[in-house]
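User: Show me a protein chain along with its predicted structure.
Assistant: Here is one chain, sequence first, then structure tokens.
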Amino acid sequence: MKKILLLVLTMLFLCACDAQQTDLNVPNKPSAVPDKAFWVGGLDGGVFVLIAKNKNLEPDEYFAKIYYASGDIAYKGRMTLSPRGSTAIDHINPAIFQGWDGDTLYIEGNKQLKVQN
């Protein structure tokens, strides 16, 4: 009986943990930030991101404009997808982007877009 009670309590605890939702506050987009830019961030902040791909870029290169929440530009220029040889990313899908650390955009699947120096 004690084992069943312990199991039930454990299940309730785990369900309660899963039920928690985080309210990520996406700031209003400043007028300096293009409409197509999307928010990449979390509880500690974030940036607005606009990624482009065109025929003038290498297969693993993308052009990025990254804006602070204030609308100021954090980065503008080419970025390289790593690890090398990775399949192309869906650069217009905000759901794949996980964060920005100042020189790297982190992407699901252990991929990254890195600032070219």
